[in-house]
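Lecture notes, continued. The same structure-token format from the folding unit now serves as the input rather than the output. Read the line below as a description of shape only.
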């Protein structure tokens, strides 16, 4: 899919946009004529995104856990692409391990990527949005923040932190015209999760049994919600956490 960049309506940054949910968000933004800057580490994934989406898709290879590089990264984006209208903090990592076996280093590694990097990138992008008096930030948390899911202690802590940070940022930045919201996906069929569930029919039945809609979500389902929250359609929406989970969070 190629687009004419002269038609770009806005500029967005999507972290982790080279795969899974992030890739679907990039596709949605490109369809909406939003110039989309994809940040990730894997060069091959970034090259595939460029090839798939054409000129409206710009990729930057950067490890966001390198916090010291973030101010220069945002400065480069501003210099080369002008105003940043939207930031989607989608990049995230997980660690499945028994609670008592998680080391301090592992816990901190998850928090570094899933929380501190989100804070640091948001802070630098917000500095560029403040003079404009406008901007939309969408964070990606997880249904893990609502449930006490086993064996994902660091991930759960990180996703709960994202939701708290979303509310605090929304309150503080509202007077400056910057909206901050969060999408909390349930079980989404990315390559990784679909394979894991398909290889474990018992777990798949359990998951589907507590999902009122009775099916996995797709990355595109999450992307539609992210686009809504980033758009004019959500101009009076801030500080919210929108579950995209087939009803999972109803808790039936
Ligand atoms: P993927 O593993 O496909 O995507 C994660 C992305 O994050 C990758 O593109 C990866 O890029 C990027 N990333 C990770 N660490 C870094 C880093 N240090 N610097 C830059 N980029 C990084 O997973 P999903 O698409 O499933 O997950 C996307 C988001 O959705 C995550 O925040 C996840 O927690 C959340 N989520 C997913 C659910 C699901 O069911 N799939 C459910 C609930 C929440 P690269 O490979 O280039 O390093």
């Amino acid at each position: 899919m190629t687009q004419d960049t002269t038609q770009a309506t806005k500029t967005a940054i999507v972290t982790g946009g080279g795969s899974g949910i992030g890739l679907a968000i990039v596709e949605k933004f490109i369809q909406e004529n939003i110039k989309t800057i994809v940040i990730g580490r894997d060069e091959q994934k970034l090259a595939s995104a460029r090839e798939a989406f054409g000129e409206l898709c710009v990729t930057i290879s950067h490890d966001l856990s390198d916090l010291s590089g973030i101010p220069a990264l945002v400065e480069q984006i501003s210099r080369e692409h002008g105003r940043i209208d939207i930031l989607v903090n989608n990049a995230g990592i997980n660690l499945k391990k028994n609670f008592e076996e998680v080391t301090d280093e592992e816990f901190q590694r998850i928090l570094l990527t899933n929380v501190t990097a989100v804070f640091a990138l948001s802070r630098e992008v917000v500095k560029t949005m403040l003079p404009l008096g406008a901007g939309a930030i969408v964070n990606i948390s997880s249904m893990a923040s609502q449930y006490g899911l086993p064996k994902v202690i660091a991930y759960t802590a990180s996703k709960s932190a994202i939701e708290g940070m979303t509310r605090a940022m929304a309150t503080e930045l509202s007077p400056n015209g910057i909206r901050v919201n969060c999408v909390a996906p349930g079980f989404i069929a990315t390559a990784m999760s679909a394979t894991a569930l398909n290889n474990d029919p018992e777990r798949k039945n359990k998951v589907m049994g507590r999902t009122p809609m009775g099916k996995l979500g797709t990355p595109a389902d999450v992307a539609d919600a992210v686009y809504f929250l980033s758009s004019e359609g959500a101009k009076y929406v801030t500080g919210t956490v929108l579950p995209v989970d087939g009803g999972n969070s109803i808790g039936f």
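Point for the exam: The longest helix spans residues 104-129.
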